[in-house]
Design a protein that fits this description.
globular, alpha+beta, 29% helix
């Protein structure tokens, strides 16, 4: 519960992402991650953080010489601003999860 409280305090919010309905999916801004519980009461990353594309979990790929986040036919360019937002999202998440696993 302490890990969840810290995640909420850091602005992470639960969302439903098919096909991960049985996992804990969290969103902050346009970034999302899929977590699974671990035995010590913490969480581990089940699917790496990514951008939401059309409200669905995007996959980062290289297309036509540039990086994009895609979901089916929809894509979102991986601009430096978006990559910075994703890096900050991951950093915050990792710090909170590491705190939870050390307790």
């Amino acid at each position: 519960m302490q890990v969840m409280q810290r995640l909420f305090e850091a602005g992470f919010r639960p969302i439903a992402i098919p096909p991960y309905e049985s996992a804990l999916c969290l969103r902050r801004g346009e970034c999302a991650v899929v977590l699974a519980p671990v035995d010590n009461g913490g969480f581990r990353v089940l699917a790496p953080a990514s951008f939401l594309v059309n409200e669905k979990f995007g996959v980062r790929v290289r297309r036509g010489g540039k990086e994009v986040f895609v979901f089916k036919q929809h894509e979102l360019e991986a601009t430096q601003e978006r990559l910075n937002e994703l890096a900050e999202f991951q950093k915050s998440l990792e710090e909170i999860l590491a705190e939870g696993s050390s307790q």
